[in-house]
Specification:
With 288 residues, the protein is α+β, with helices and mostly antiparallel strands. It contains 13 helices and nine strands. The protein folds into three domains: 71 residues, no CATH class; 104 residues, Band 7 domain (Tetrahydropterin Synthase, Chain A), CATH 3.30.479; 60 residues, 5' to 3' exonuclease, C-terminal subdomain (DNA polymerase, domain 1).
């Protein structure tokens, strides 16, 4: 009897696998739609919100990029392709530890910037000085780095800014400017997080302003689809630490239909959502 039941369970497990489809995880256009791997699901909506982390070296083929980890979130499925968004990057811990050796000064910074096309990004640069430096010097270096990051962001699109950040262009510019204060050994952008994507109505407005400056504007009321689809909002929520696809959907169903709505909520309001404890709610708000 037990043997028959085990055979039945094995057959049911095989049947579940047969109903699933493999989807190719594709990088966004800024990374030439490179293949990031594969994922399995029984319905096309299931992969939305899933995260994947790849080494930048895998995309460039350059060994010197091996310390950079890129983070992507699936936001749309077309056919057998799962399309992703870039949601941030991070350095490997051992690389950062090697930079910040004893008797060196490490200057950290956290700056929230907005690109020319409306993407909100949190950037965390790192400067290393060969010797111990004064607090006033560290503050000046941090200020110069912040000014450099904001300057790049305000003059570039999201794609251009990400490329400048990962290629080291932003860090190199900041490093040269910091030498007027102290000859820093190097500057790196060790981490980034995409805080908010522009809504469809904002992107349309930007395109109209660029293409038809001088044409009479027509005011229209944005529809719910233009403000952001459910899939887009869920993908954005899953970019926050501690929130997976199920928790993201629970937030959306509870009435949080944007990052602003989540940002304006209290810890108690978020904790009332299924799957959220007060400590997790607090952690979510700290990221906003």
């Amino acid at each position: 009897m037990a043997e028959k039941r085990s055979r039945t369970m094995a057959r049911q497990a095989r049947d579940r696998w047969r109903t699933k489809t493999w989807y190719n995880i594709m990088a966004p256009d800024m990374f030439d739609r490179a293949s990031l791997g594969e994922t399995m699901a029984n319905v096309p909506e299931k992969p939305i919100g899933r995260k994947t982390i790849v080494s930048f070296q895998d995309l460039t083929g350059d060994y010197s990029d091996g310390h950079i980890k890129l983070k992507f979130v699936i936001h749309e499925v077309k056919g057998n392709d799962a399309l992703t968004r870039f949601v941030g990057h991070d350095f490997r811990k051992d690389y950062v530890i090697r930079l910040a050796r004893r008797r060196r000064s490490k200057i950290d910074g956290v700056f929230n910037v907005t690109t020319k096309d409306g993407y909100s990004i949190r950037v965390k640069p790192l400067a290393i000085a060969e010797k111990r430096i004064k607090t006033t010097q560290a503050k000046s270096i941090r200020r110069i780095i912040g000014e450099s990051v904001r300057e790049f962001a305000s003059s570039m699109t999201f794609s251009e800014f990400v490329k400048a950040m990962l290629s080291g262009e932003i860090a190199e510019t900041a490093s040269k400017r910091c030498r007027t204060i102290f000859p820093v050994r190097r500057v790196e952008v060790k981490k980034s997080e995409v805080l908010a994507f522009p809504t469809l109505v904002e992107r349309i407005t930007d395109e109209v302003e660029e293409e038809g400056a001088g044409e009479e504007a027509v005011e229209t009321e944005p529809t719910p689809e233009e403000v952001g689809s459910k899939e887009e909002v869920i993908a954005l929520f899953t970019s926050l630490k501690g929130i997976g696809p199920m928790k993201a959907e629970a937030l959306y169903e509870a009435g949080f239909d944007s990052l602003d709505a989540l940002r304006n909520a209290t810890t108690d309001q978020i904790a009332e959502v299924e799957g959220f404890s007060p400590s997790l709610a607090k952690k979510v708000l700290e990221q906003l």
